[in-house]
Write a structure and sequence with these properties.
alpha+beta; outer membrane lipoprotein receptor (LolB), chain A; eleven-stranded antiparallel sheet; 21% helix; 35% strand; globular
């Protein structure tokens, strides 16, 4: 089944997992008293070693987006469930997503049927059992606005997001360090693509993304595993993102 604009939104925003914190600077070791055995210095805990879900909840949307902005690259696996008003049973899928700042994304659906999607600053390209499709983002205002908004989320561009969406951030009291970030589109063209988008998380980790279509269809994506420090060599950049080495 071809991917709707709202489904595409979920697939891209499923990459929103967080970068690691910078390494702490170790404190200088103190000299032991005379006649005593020197003790090994106690190393300060490395914040990057703490799982993202066990870190403190970001204070606000600005803080959360700042953590997104530090992400050097991403490889993630996900599961997805689409509840469509015309179908009795939900559609389920799983796959892998690769993201390279500032605006390159490759998504591979692994089940139930193989399919790929690639986003670059200039082009959206898909391939599935129905064939290949390509959209020049420089010639399609509607798609360009849509994709640009998503890239702004990845980049942690709060001013741009505030311009395109009504952004609200709230704690979830019943979940330790739980939070929600909800985006409501302001522009009519985005409102025709989706009714609302909500990110759910714990600590500094996005755990689920829920998109509701204007017709009531709902798509939920769950992050299964993620490497938010992923880097790509020239061969991988060409293979996944179509970037030719200079």
């Amino acid at each position: 089944m071809p991917c709707s604009p709202a489904c595409l939104l979920v697939e891209l925003l499923a990459t929103l997992v967080l970068a690691q914190d910078p390494q702490p600077t170790p404190a200088p070791a103190s000299q032991p008293p005379a006649g005593t055995q020197p003790q090994q210095p106690v190393k300060a805990p490395d914040p990057a070693s703490v799982p993202a879900q066990e870190r403190a909840r970001p204070a606000d949307a600005k803080t959360l987006l700042a953590v997104f902005a530090r992400m050097p690259g991403l490889e993630a696996t996900y599961t997805e469930e689409k509840k469509l008003t015309l179908l009795a049973l939900p559609l389920k899928s799983k796959g892998r997503i690769l993201f390279l700042p500032p605006g390159y994304l490759f998504r591979a659906v692994e089940a139930p049927e193989p399919a790929t999607l690639r986003i670059t600053p200039d082009e959206l390209r898909t391939e599935d059992r129905d064939g290949k499709q390509s959209i020049d983002l420089r010639r399609s205002d509607t798609v360009r606005v849509f994709i640009t908004a998503l890239v702004q989320v990845f980049a942690g561009d709060e001013p741009a997001l505030q311009k395109a969406f009504t952004v609200s951030y709230a704690a979830v009291p019943e979940t330790k360090n739980g939070w929600t970030l909800e985006l409501l589109p302001k522009e009519a063209n985005l409102q025709r693509m989706m009714k609302s988008l909500q990110l759910r998380g714990v600590g500094e980790a996005v755990t689920a993304i829920v998109v509701v279509d204007p017709n009531g269809d709902r798509t939920t994506t769950t992050i299964v595993t993620a490497d938010s420090n992923r880097t790509f060599d020239p061969a991988e950049k060409k293979r996944w993102f179509g970037i030719e080495a200079k």
